[in-house]
Amino acid sequence: MIYREAGDFKTSYREDSQTFPIKLDRRAYWTLMVVAFAVVPFVINDYWANAVLLPFLIYAIAALGLNILTGYAGQVSLGTGGFMAVGAYAAYKLMTAFPDVPILFHVLIAGAITALVGMAFGLPSLRIKGFYLAVATLAAQFFLVWLFNKVPWFFNYSASGMINAPERTMFGAAITGPEASAPARYLFCLILTVALAWIARNLTRGSVGRKWMAIRDMDIAAEIIGVNPLTAKLSAFAVSSFFIGVAGALLFAVYLGAVEVGEAFGIQKSFLILFMIIIGGLGSIFGSFAGAAFMVLMPVLLKNVLVDGFGWATDLAAHFQFMIVGALIIVFLVFEPHGLAQLWRLAKEKLRLWPFPH
Amino acid sequence: MPEQFLWAMEVMLNGLMAGVLYALVALGFVLIFKASGVFNYAQGVMALFAAMTLVGLQKGQVPFAHLINTIFGTDVHKFGWELAPWLAILLTAGVMVLFAWLVQRFILQHLVNQPDIILFMATIGLAYFMEGFADLMWGADIKTLDIGLPQGVNAWIDETTFNLFGYGFFIDNLDIAATIVAALLVVALVLFSQYTKQGRAMRAVADDHQAALSVGISLRFIWVMVWSVAGFVALVAGIMWGAKSGVQFSLSLIALKALPVLMLGGFTSIPGAIVGGLIIGVGEKLFEFLVGPYIGGATENWFAYVLALIFLVFRPQGLFGEKIIERV
Predict the structure, then answer these.
(1) Does A142 touch chain B (CB under 8 A)?
(2) Could you state, in order of their start, the residue ranges of all structural domains in chain A?
């Protein structure tokens, strides 16, 4: 009854093309922002930050990145874990080489370096397509992980082969390292997530995004109507890798603090992010967030219900988690290929007509 | 003859043997891809599942023992019998046929006419499901698979080469057995697809779905059959790899190794799968032997992919694949 556009008159083109055309959506969005920025930092504790909020925000960035490449530009990539590793190791090298620079710059430059690496591995996409490309991106995955494992320069010759995030600050507050407080880490990730989501949203509905979608829908036809496949595909790889690199840097520096490359950025991570965007919705910004939230929350919930609630062994719960994720992927692909985002859109359509559907 | 050369020869022979095993997995991919256009990522997990089922049946394990014990508070683990290997293999083959039917009934039938990449992602989901299901059914511990295959170094080759070159080649009996089995399997597959009614129907479906339908071939039946055949191939691959390195999770990763083999050989070609497997097997072993020591070793993890990637840039359809023609 309250969720409708009646009486909400648009008087300019700008107003008409805004992201949230319905007033209630705008209010909900701003309320969410206020809660996220002004309420959550005061009530957050270490458990919530580490178990739910930080992984959600960081994986949301990675899912946004992969969604740009796979959902919008149609280039399936299984190299996400490897590109996240590039972001993490670039951030580590920068953090140790320039200790006085605020952490934000380390993270952003790490993203830019990942963008360059992503473009290099995106070059074959001009020749090969579909799952040939998906398999080709596996080369990036395995090669990059091997590289960071074997070349001691990347982990500063540390004996364990692991990288540890030293303490780095932003505006005087520690963001990384053991002393960093939960609110500071949370806010840092939140600001980056919101900013990147805003960029992603506006890129994908602008001319760049339209070119990506044209390439996705049929690349030869797109080429004929004047979309340059070289720039479209490489820009998709660059932007996507930038997002994924930032996510990798945050995952390492802010969330985990110390990583071993094969464990943190292995092929499983690539699949995790891919599943996020399939379940959330290919080609949807909201879907990236929904998928990330789903994949982060589901293991936590399963553990709470099965292990703590029923007293099952943890390995049983882990097997069930595999089965549920696998089954959900198939169910979504069969019944709702556009994922949670499409369910959300349908719910909104229903809500607009409620309670008089005719 | 210089020693270095002899070592390289030995490495190459071992690479050939490893390549045969890669080709075995790749073969399962090619069969399904040709007949249904599905790129079946779950092939490796199918091999794992088949091997686990084989071991479980042979040792008389109770399926879902851990789950049953947790829910009902019982303590059952084994039925207390041991099956003969051939009976266990036969039963496992039956399980793989059932599995093929379930896949066709609950997944493929609903995804007809979807883009290839959607089907590919569905098989990734299937692989995840199977991984959890196999562990739930038979337990996640590492199992030894023993159906009486020969093991250990082949003494005859060792002696003969020692007498010839003054240096004995180390070649595992198991690898030789795998090569023979793989060769027999390929011959059997070729005979099946050339000389039986079902085999011809299968090739007809691979050529053109619609034309096959119009002459009265049941697509559903053919798909169940193809997935069953791929299940048998997975079973053979699972036995070989399981006997070599134990039945465990890493077995499912051989699927990932088979992917570059396919890219090299072309997705639609059975000879391509075999030649691709041999090239990758020899290539990665030789690269590890010649270049590996200078750049830190463990190059086997990525060499196959990078080789396939570079190769694809110059020849996107692979060595023996059909030429890709695109139209708007």
Answers:
(1) yes
(2) 47-266
